[in-house]
Amino acid sequence: MRARPHRRPRPEGRRRGRRGSPRRAAMAPAELRILAVLSSPLPLRVLLLLSLLSAVDVVSAAAPPLKFGINYGQIANNLPHPTQVSGLLQSLNVNRVKLYDADPAVLTAFAGTGVEFIVGNEDLQNLTDARKARAWVAQHVQPFLPNTRITCITVGNEVLSGKDTVAMQNLLPAMQAVYQAVVALGLASQVNVSTAHSVNILASSYPPSSGVFREELGQYIQPILNFHAEVGSPFLINAYPFFAYKASPGSVSLPYVLFEPNPGVVDPNTNLTYDNMLYAQIDAMYAAMKAMGHTDLTVRISETGWPSKGDEDEVGATVANAAAYNGNLMKRIAMGQGTPLRPDVPIDVFVFALFNEDMKPGPASERNYGLFYPNGTPVYNLGFNGASFSPSPTLSSSSKPTITFLMAVVVLLSGFFL
Q1: How many domains, in total, are found in the chain?
Q2: pLDDT tens across 151-162, in order?
Q3: Mean residue pLDDT across the chain
Q4: 215-236: b or e for each residue (b if 16 or more CB lie within 10 Å)?
Q5: H or E element, residue 204
Q6: Which of 158, 216, 230, 312 is catalytic?
Q7: d(CA 307, CA 292)
Q8: Is 202 a member of any domain?
Q9: pLDDT score for 65
Q10: 44 inside domain
Q11: What is the 8-class DSSP label of residue 354?
Q12: Which CATH number goes with the domain that contains 150?
């Protein structure tokens, strides 16, 4: 059960004086401009109105959305209400979110925000039934469109790196049934279908050009690749260089996994130089797909991140390393950088995760991947100091200037006819 959101303190402008009357707040610059316009002659009002309309466009375009997405996990008992999360992400200008289910409270809270969602369903056995797959899409996806932008459904998560052979056999039929449901409901132009894989489906990843899938998984992966090519959906991978460093800190260079300056590693087969492990993992996946006859698919990172805390034996799980990994990665994403093999294809990444999740099982690191604590405080500095919770999913701090100008326009238009 989610905790109730904390009550917001009374805004400064609403405090009452000793006699019980509201204090007069100082006028904002925008309000002074409105009064000046209203007191001007009519021709001048027209010119000023045009300038205000231009200002609306400038303000609206001043803060472009960030180029990375974020995973919004909810395995916790202390997370804020989705409405507050909506305000937080809008204050960050994050416009892509990945869920592990299709939580109606979250999808409702983000209605009208323009934020794009990936939703998930891991009930593979039921999803192989075409009737049940259609019922799920009709109940959990269709009602929220188009007010909430749902662009992808992930069927299962890291199924092929597990040990459940029944789930492996059900994966593709479930993906096909969900896609057929999307088509039947007329949603195919808005929503695609995929699944997320661990990099552990690779038998070899070094050098990147030698990337190849595990032999025993070929029977599952080949038809899945064919499915992606047929429907035009991306190949999603969850990639964590942290795991490689944790397993072999003596042989894996920390700067190499943190995107810090280092000599790099040269692939002897392609002569391409890699200065970080994540890009090498992406290109190893491209090589493995090419070995199966597919050069027509795009690899996207559905999860990557670094924990800020771990158990004593979890080497490298520190605040400094987490800040370095995610901070350096975000800089590269902002540059539109591609991998050495595909330099013209900007990497597409969903960072894991939005919050620390206190109920996740496993080692301590599993509960400490968040960029934020549940109270909205950043775990470390990534330039998110202006982030804040908002009580409304449609009125964040970044949108208030635009709304002020729009109110001014309404007042001016009414003034012309008085």
Answers
A1: 1
A2: 999 999 999 999
A3: 84
A4: eebeebbeebbebbbebebebb
A5: strand 202-204
A6: 158
A7: 34
A8: yes
A9: 67
A10: no
A11: S
A12: 3.20.20.80
- Measured CA to CA, the distance from residue 288 to residue 337 in angstroms comes to 22
Q: Is 260 an active-site residue?
A: no
Reported as half-sphere exposure (CB side, CA atoms, 13 A), residue 388 has a value of 9
Q: What is the pLDDT of residue 16?
A: 32
Q: Which long-range contacts (CB under 8 A, 24 or more apart) does 7-12 make?
A: 8/391
Catalytic one among 116, 303, 312, 357?
Answer: 303
C-alpha distance from residue 8 to each of 11, 111, 388, 390 (Å)? 8, 23, 12, 9
Predicted confidence at residue 119, as pLDDT, reads 99
Q: Which amino acid belongs to residue 107?
A: L
- Per the listing, tokens 């003034």 go with 415
Is residue 347 domain-resident? yes
**Closest CA relative to residue 181, chosen from 135, 149, 227, 224:** 135
Q: Which of 170, 181, 291, 160 is nearest to 231 (CA)?
A: 181
366 is catalytic: no
Q: Does 262 map to a domain?
A: yes
Minimum mean pLDDT among 103-107, 108-112, 408-412: which range? 408-412
Whole domain around residue 359: which residue ranges?
69-367
Structure tokens that stand for 29 in this block: 């610059």
